[in-house]
Amino acid sequence: MHFLNPLFLVGLLAASLPIIIHLINRQKAVRRRFPAMEFLRRSQQKLARRLKVRHLLLLALRVLALLLVALGLARPYLVSDAGVEAGDRLPRGVVFVVDDSASMAWDDGAAWREAVGRVGEEVGRLRAWDRVSLVYGSAWPAGAPLGEDIPLPQLVDDHGEVLEALEGHAPTMQGTDLGTALRSASAMLATSDLPAREIVLVTDRQRSGLDLEALAKVPLEVPVRVLDVGGEEARSNLAVVGASYQQRSTGAKPEFEVVATVQSFGAEAASGVEVQLVVDGVQVASGLVDVPAGGKASKVFTTQLERRGVHRAEFRLAEGTDRLLADNVYAFPIHLAAKVRALIVNGDRRTVAYQDEVFYLERALQPGPRSSSAVVFDTVGVDGLEGKALSDYDVVVLANAEKVPRASVTELRAFVEGGGGLLLTVGDQVKPEGWNPLFGELLPRQLRSTKVLAGQDDPDAPIKLVRLGSPDRTHPVFRVFDLPGGESLGSVRVYSYMLLDPNPVDATQIVLSYSDGAPALLERPLGEGRVALLTTTLDRDWTDLPIRTAFLPMMQRYLRYLARRGTSAGEVSPYVASRVSLEVPADKRARVEVRDPDGGRIVLAPESTDPNAPLTFVPRRAGAYSVWAAPRSGDGAPVELEELAFAVNLDPAESDLTPLPLEELTPLLSPQREGGEAPVLDTPERRLGLWSLLLFLVTLALLGETVLGTRRSVLLKVWGRVRGAASAPKR
Amino acid sequence: MTDGAGSQRERYLDPALLMQLGNLQVRARSVVEGTIAGMHRSPHKGSSVEFAEYKEYSPGDEIKHIDWKAYGKFDKYYVKQFEDETNLQAWLVVDGSGSMEFGSEGVTKLAYAQTLAASLAYFLLRQGDAAGVMLFDAGPGLLLPPSSKRTHLDDVVRVLERLEGGVGRRTDLAAALSAMAERVRRRSLVVIISDMLDHSPEVMNLAKVLRRRRQEVAIFHLVDPAELELPYEGLTIFEGLEGEEELLVDPDDLRDRYQQEMAAHLEALARGCREGDIEYQRVLTTTPLERVLLDFVEGRLVRARR
What we know:
By secondary structure, chain A is of the alpha+beta class. Chain A is built from 15 helices and 34 strands.
């Protein structure tokens, strides 16, 4: 309670007056002699109790009346947000900005339900002539179709529409963008000519979701009142904030290492958090992880995937881990390439096909027009290497190539370090003095010179040549040559080979040797990829390997082994309500649609006339998305573009539930914030004067005092006159 | 009604005014003359002068009536009493307690009682009856035996003038009646003039005893109007006139209840008198004494005819 004239409270002392007067009156009582004392005494004894009560009541009423008068003069008032000031009776325009970001789903939607309830109360207080509207406060990219984000695009008279829209809505998986929502609300009210206007902001004040700078720049012309629904309690939360994978092996069931990153938001460490790996809807692994308070922890899983193509994977935190469920799932696609894309650089082109350096290799990789090889390739000359986008390939074979441009070598090095595979083969075109400085560290070992053992027409060749020795049995490529038929590798004749520098280079592994012990095939990891060097030719100039039965499986397997491994590196996981760009090939753009995690289809329309411009799309839900395309419209069923499959996740900013203190938020929402002191707007003061109520109570007290205090004789006389007047005959 | 009341006011003296007139004897004469003027002639003629009985002498008896022959025979004083000596012997028992000092209308109950008693005595003596006086407060006081001598009025007035009242004197009517019962042998009229604030049940019992002894008992119950109405306002400390404790009350609070108590008392008194065949007359001290006397005399005439 507040007072306009607190000095008048001194008047409360006047409440003692009746008591003082009572004491004075007692002293001033008239002394009177009277004979019939016995009757007086008897009457007094019989009435004593009743009289005492009456006197006390009378005294209380007098004291109360004086107290109320003193209080009334001090002009007390209450501060309330439900006042009935004159201004409030004017028609009002109210726009409710309701935060429907993912954090509002906390505790099974408790915050959201509270928000709906609070808005319901506010709407209930509106008068029939007030107008309302509703704007949601979740983030949405500028320029993207708004869809359902403005349920009521203008002020309406039907208040029920607001409640109906809210009750049919639920917290989204989007981030928070109150600035845009307030801007929309402010613009809506700016066009209204209602005399009183107000924005009511309903939010959980999640600090990480609020862009304070953006909020401060929102042009506000009307007061903003904040209805807080989050409370001040610290809410600890766990979320899966990242996932990565790395293919560790090739083969029919390549092995993948999948890593989940779990973050704790809050001051409490979490131990033994169960993380589950789900691939294609099936839980394939689970494990426990300890997450430090406010920090991150990783959990590594190893799994095998068989089917080529894209796998829809996700990490889940076990049920009951925390009370915000939306961020306990993190979806990601695992791409397992269906075919290895190879680039063959032919360093020794011949017009006679079988004399061509890569004739046998091409046949091994593409045995026949109807065969389904796991490797697809393009062949170029050395001069064609420049201008080729190496990122389109998984492995490059540089066959007997000399005079490779230095820029191409640099690209090749970057290609390997980025995960690609490079197979270098030698021949008569290769000069050690040229290659060694050119390739440098790219070579598993420096070349020294060519060792010619015998010519192919040399009659002594059988005793001069060497054969391929036993391979490294542990190598995944050569493991199978222990099986029946694998012995053909040992029958390969080699007439010449390149001698190498004997000094070992770090991490270089000799995979295959000749029978004289010289290295035949070496490989070395470089960055994320591998470089391999075959010290003899891919054609029949230095060896008969190409015509041996071992050649085809060896090259097929080895190129797949060298090829770029499946990895999540470089993949970007978009957040809900962020703009996703899809590089759909121009020939498949007739009709492109995206299928969301619930199976909903969104047809993408090109936004520009450029046929190569990426198609963009803004996802509303978290989960795995797929892209489908039909080459020509109406031409059969669309085909999934697996390489474009992507997953969308919750913005981790929504996982941090720390609230922004109200005293920090409200100054940002004041219309006068740039003009100096910002008034607090969360609870606009409306003074409820209590004067009239006190006056009424004083009247009641005085009336009671009059009835109780007036002498009965007087009352009876008055009553008698009244009755007399009522019963008098009318003339 | 109005005319009657008006004529009554003209005919009778207001008691307050009466009290201003001379001494008690003058007042008594004035009252009686006024009363007789309003009376009809009495139907009763003279009375017998035959000897009736002897009575042992008691102080106050006239010496001339002592039968000296009887004294010679019995060695005791006997007084001859004759039938014609008097029609009636009346005792005026007058209250002199503290409560009689109260008067709200300019007349105290005591003054009223004195005048009423003197008037009665004069009236009785005037028609040849004997009148005696006994004063009382906390016990029997001065006593004047009845006599029908013309000059007896002077004695009566003198005794009555000794009635001074006084705050603190308690009332004990029962003791006075008890003394009266012992004293009165002849058939007499015992007239009690009191405010009847002695609540002892003995009072009514003794009155009934007197009545059973074929004495006639009449009670003039003097009541001040303020005693009936309790007309006071404002916080008041009431002091008793007979030594009661003080009482601080607002009379307005008690008025209804007090009036009920008082009415019950009056009713009980009237009922007791009715049951005991006792003549009871409630007299407000504002009532003209002539009226009171007249009512009494007429009442007695009515009783005599029955």
